[in-house]
Amino acid sequence: MASPLVFIDGDQGTTGLQIHQRLRHRTDLQLVTLSAEHRKDPQRRAEIINACDIAILCLPDQAARDAVASIENPAVRVIDASSAHRTHPDWTYGFAQMNPQQAQRIATARRVSNPGCYPTGAIGLLRPLLEAGLLPRDYPANIYAVSGYSGKGRVGVQEYEGEGASPPPAFQVYGLGLEHKHVPEIQQQSGLSQPPMFVPAYGAFRQGIVLSIPVQLRLLAPGVDAAQLHECLVRHYLDAAHVQVMSLQEAKQLTHLDPQALNGTDDLQLVVCANEQTGQVLLAAIFDNLGKGAAGAAVQNLDLMVAEI
C-alpha cells in the first residue's frame, strides 16, 4: 500500500510550519504543500485537496471553510487547525484524551477539528470534574491564561522577531470585550451550561501557556474538597499519553508556575493547588501553545487517523 498523501495547507504560519517540520522526515507519509505561486490559486488548492488522503488546514477561519467546501472527493479526510469547525456538530473534536472514546472517534472520523490552545487547558481541567458531578454544570467559571506572543500567529512572531522588531511588552491582557472566539468552544466541549468568563493575556516570551481556574469550595456540594478534585483528574488521565497530573504533595511545594516549562514537548500538565483554611482551590494547566496547543495535537490526531487507513 502506498504511503498516505498528506496535504498541509498553510505551511507558512506558526502551526503549519511546525507541523511540516515534524512530518518532513517521516518515511510513512507523502507530504505535499502549495508552492508560493499557487498559494492564492483556489483551483490549484482544490486539485490538491481532492487528490490527498488527509488535508491539514492551517488557515484563517473563512479560508478553512472555503477549502472544505471545495472538497468533492468523499475519501478525503480533514484536520482543521482553525477555529472554524470546533463547535460544528458534524466535526469530531480532536482532543484525544478528552474521554476514553475520543481517540477512536478521531481515528475513524472524516472531519476532525483541532482544539484551540487555550481551550486545551480549560477543557482538560473542567470536563472531567463536570462529568463526575464535582463541579456543577452552571459553575461560574473564571479562566485566566497567559500565552507566549506566538499565540498571535505569524503576525505576532514577526511583530517581535522580524526585521526592525521592537521588544514585546512585559504583559498584555486582551479580549476585554469578553467575547473571545474560544469561549463557545470551551463551553461546549467542557460541558458548562453557561459561558465562562475568559481573560487571556500575552507575555514577553515566544511560546508556552499557564492557564488557571479558581474554584471556591463553598459553591460545590458539601464535602467536595481539593483531594477529590485531584483524584478525579488522576483517574481520568491515568492511561492518557501526553497528560500528567502533578501530585498534591508536589503542588504544595510550588512557589510559581512557569508557562515555558513544557516548551518543545507535546505534554499537558495539570496542577491542583489548595488552601484548606479558606476553602479555595486553583486548577492550572501548563503546556506549549505550539505543541499540545496546536501542532503537537494535530500530529497526534494525524497518527490516529493514519492508523485506520
From TrEMBL:
- EC number per UniProt: 1.2.1.38
Q: What does this protein do?
A: Catalyzes the NADPH-dependent reduction of N-acetyl-5-glutamyl phosphate to yield N-acetyl-L-glutamate 5-semialdehyde.
Sample GO molecular function, one term: N-acetyl-gamma-glutamyl-phosphate reductase activity
Q: Which residues form the Semialdehyde dehydrogenase NAD-binding domain?
A: 5-106
Q: What is this protein called?
A: N-acetyl-gamma-glutamyl-phosphate reductase
UniProt-listed InterPro entries: AGPR (IPR050085), AGPR_AS (IPR023013), AGPR_dimerisation_dom (IPR058924), AGPR_type-2 (IPR010136), NAD(P)-bd_dom_sf (IPR036291), Semialdehyde_DH_NAD-bd (IPR000534)
UniProt pathway annotation: Amino-acid biosynthesis; L-arginine biosynthesis; N(2)-acetyl-L-ornithine from L-glutamate: step 3/4
Native organism? Pseudomonas kulmbachensis
* Sequence similarity: Belongs to the NAGSA dehydrogenase family. Type 2 subfamily.
Instruction: Report the SMART domains cross-referenced here.
Output: Semialdhyde_dh
